[in-house]
């Protein structure tokens, strides 16, 4: 377990690899950060562009158990309050499934998590770049990543319309854009 620098409020976050014992808490966290009325308490909500689920227990277990992948659980005062997925892909790592409890958004915890994820990818796997995909209409979220050093590539991939495991789109122009940052 690794303790990171303290965010502006609350206790020190600790990072650990998630286990299947964490699945229910992680699904609830991810859903609360992105879907439904609870997500509107934070600024990362997707409630206006996607309804339905963001993930499910099977999807979280798949990330936890995938070789070369880890799901970092972030705890504050013994409670899982954030998470992110890291996947080793050769010279780069992939960052995904990033969620921070809406009650803690805006307190600086996200920046701490990003820095820790980049450190882990660099030190554990020798990754030179971090890649992520973001729904291209999420301008405020993309701007946040740009302030953390990520750059837009213009490389788009289609949103999985018709696959309700990823939510029910409320608009017809959704696609993912690849963002990249050099980390080592």
Total E-strand runs: 10
**What percent of residues adopt helix (DSSP H or I)?**
25-40%
Strand content is 25-35%
User: Which stretches are low in confidence, meaning pLDDT under 50 for 5 or more residues running?
Assistant: 4-9
Name of the CATH superfamily: Gcn5-related N-acetyltransferase (GNAT)
In CATH terms, what is the architecture? 3-Layer(aba) Sandwich
The rough form would be described as: globular
Describe this structure in words.
This protein has helices at 23-34, 57-65, 109-125, 139-147, and strands at 2-3, 13-17, 50-51, 69-76, 79-89, 92-100, 129-135, 151-158, 168-169, 175-182. With 184 residues, it is α+β, with helices and mostly antiparallel strands. It has a single domain (2-182), classed as Aminopeptidase (3-Layer(aba) Sandwich). The strands form two sheets. Strands 1-2-4-5-6-7-10-8 form an eight-stranded mixed β-sheet, sandwiched between helices. The chain has a two-stranded antiparallel ribbon with strand order 3-9. α3 links the parallel β6 (92-100) and β7. The longest helix is centred in the middle third of the chain and has 17 residues, at 109-125.
């Amino acid at each position: 377990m690794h303790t990171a620098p303290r965010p502006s409020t609350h206790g020190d976050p600790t990072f650990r690899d998630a286990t299947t014992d964490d699945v229910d808490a992680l699904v609830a966290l991810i859903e609360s950060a992105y879907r439904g009325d609870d997500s509107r308490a934070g600024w990362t909500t997707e409630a206006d562009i996607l309804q339905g689920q963001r993930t499910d227990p099977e999807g979280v277990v798949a990330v936890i158990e995938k070789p070369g992948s880890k799901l970092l659980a972030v705890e504050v005062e013994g409670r899982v309050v954030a998470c992110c997925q890291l996947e080793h892909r050769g010279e780069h790592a992939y960052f995904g499934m990033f969620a921070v409890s809406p009650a803690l958004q805006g307190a600086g915890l996200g920046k701490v998590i990003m820095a820790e994820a980049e450190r882990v990818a660099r030190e554990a796997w020798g990754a030179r770049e971090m890649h992520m995909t973001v729904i291209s209409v999420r301008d405020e979220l993309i701007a946040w990543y740009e302030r953390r050093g990520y750059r837009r590539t213009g490389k788009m991939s289609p949103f999985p319309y018709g696959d309700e495991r990823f939510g029910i789109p409320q608009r017809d122009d959704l696609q993912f854009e690849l963002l990249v940052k050099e980390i080592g």
